[in-house]
Every structure is written in C-alpha cells, then in structure tokens.
Amino acid sequence: MAASIAANTAALDRASPTDHRAEFNAFYASNIGPITAQIRAYTGDAAEAEDLVAEAFLRALTRWKTVGTYDNPAVWVRRVAWNLATSRLRRGAFVRSFLRRQRIVDVEGPEPDRVDLERALAGLNERHRKAIILHYIAGLSGAEIAEQERVAESTVRTWLARGRAALAERLRIDDLKEPQ
C-alpha cells in the first residue's frame, strides 16, 4: 500500500506545480501512528487496521487539493478509515452469520433397519419403488398414484403387490437356529 501512496504522490507532483508532496508527507508522518492505533483498537486486528488506514490515506492523497485545505485533514482521514472499518466489520459479521447458518449439523446416523430398508428399496424395479414410496411414505392412495402416473388403478395395485413381495424377500430375516 505504501508503494501505491508513493505512486499517487508522484502523480500529484506532476499534476501540480506547488510542493504538495512535502506537505502530504509531513501530514502522513505525523498522523499515521495515532490513526492506526485508533482503528486497531476498533477492529482488534493490527494488520487490518494498517490496511484500512493506508486506504484512507490513499484516498486523502488522491483528493489532497481539497482535503489539504481542511482545518484538520486528519479528521477526514480518520472518518474515512473508521467508515471503511465499519463496512468491513459489517461484511465480516454478515459472512460469519451466513457461515453459521451453513454449518453442518451433526446428526445421528440412520438406524440399521432404515439402512436395510433403503438398500432394499434401491434394489426394486423403479415403478415398484415409486409406488411403494408414494403409498407408504407420501401417504397417497392407489387412485392418487394412478392419476399422477397416468396409469390404471389396477396397475398401481399390481406395482404395490410386486413391490411388497420384493421388499419382503430382500428384508427377510432367516430364523437363527440356536446351537444344540
């Protein structure tokens, strides 16, 4: 940022025959420390404060013909730095709030029975699976499923019957024989 201020100071020198460079340099040297300390106290971060104050001084430099005529140009620079810090803190608060809402919440995994059911459903024919899900999970009647799928109600009953039979086969638990 210091390089940017130096480059803009050189541009200011070329644009104006008066010696604004020495005036700005003296102003900068006498005010950089106190303003940075104030902004650091506000933001709680030294590097952030240095960036914000450098930006404020850069803006003062580009407007030095006007800012330099103020009774106390440091007040202008301080206000700009403070406003920049406030904007950055608000953006940071918004981002932190957004990220808190996006945080992945730890939840318990599904029960083993649910895992088995999902695997069994995944192994069904697509039409049978859809009929089972719509009927038992979504709570639709056979007539509602038939209307949605544009098929006869008897077709839906067939899908449900075949789907239940396939699920029963996939979820069958063999009786464990006790050792003798």
Q: What percentage of amino acids are in beta strands?
A: under 5%
Q: Helix proportion of residues, in percent?
A: over 70%
Q: How many β-strand runs? A: 0
End-to-end separation in angstroms reads 85 Å
Q: Specify the overall morphology.
A: rod-shaped
SSE pattern? HHHHHHHHH
Q: What is Rg?
A: 36 Å
Structural class: mainly alpha
What does this structure look like?
There is one protein chain. The chain is mostly helical and 180 residues long. It contains nine helices and no strands. It is rod-shaped. The chain starts with a helix and ends in a 10-residue tail after the last helix.
Feature tags:
single chain; 180 residues; mainly alpha; 77% helix
Topology diagram in text:
Layout lengths: L1 H14 L4 H24 L2 H17 L1 H4 L5 H30 L9 H11 L3 H12 L4 H8 L3 H18 L10
Helix pairs in contact: 1-3, 2-3, 2-5, 3-5, 7-9, 8-9
Q: What is the structure about, briefly put?
A:
With about 180 residues, this protein is mainly alpha-helical. The chain has 9 helices and no strands.
